[in-house]
Amino acid sequence: MAAEILDGTATAKAIKAELTVRVAELRERGIVPGLGTVLVGSDPGSQWYVAGKHKDCAEVGIESIRRDLPEDVTQDELFAVIDELNADPACTGYIVQLPLPKHIDTDAVLERIDPAKDADGLHPTNLGRLVLRVDQPIDTPCRAPRAA
To answer: Which GO molecular function, any one, fits this protein according to its record (predicted)?
Structure first.
């Protein structure tokens, strides 16, 4: 089996083109997708990742909602932001950028996310459904097939 060079730029372009069409179709039906992000602290890698999500949203027509919180945010203050996004109809899905500061209980944060709005799929319900293959088979392997 010959090695195949993957072109990530071309793949991303194709995915974004398809998403642009799908988002436009949703908008024609009155559904406006909105992706939220919650970023705690100022980790450069996390800031870069979250900024990329918002850039991607803009490119495909998805509304984006950004909530940046200081490193010393309390658990309750973070919960308040999560509750806000859970209740906000303009937010159809969101992520809480990990890792969180050590004083924040990450498990409690992930459990607080509405499973229907869990864009990362990290809520225990969603992870469990994925592991148990509830409702839908997983056809995509997590790795490349082994060479013969």
So the answer is: methenyltetrahydrofolate cyclohydrolase activity
Catalytic residue among 13, 53, 105, 118: 53
Domains of the chain in sequence order: 33-132 (3.40.50.10860)
pLDDT tens readout for residues 104-146: 999 999 999 999 999 999 988 888 888 887 776 555 444 444 4
Distances (CA, A) of 90 to 21, 42, 74, 76: 20, 26, 25, 23
Q: Of 120, 135, 136, 139, which is the active-site residue?
A: 120
* Residues whose CB falls within 8 Å of the CB of residue 47, separated by 6 or more in sequence, listed in order: 39
The catalytic position among 68, 97, 117, 135 is 97
Q: Catalytic site residue 97? A: yes
- Tally the residues of the chain: 148
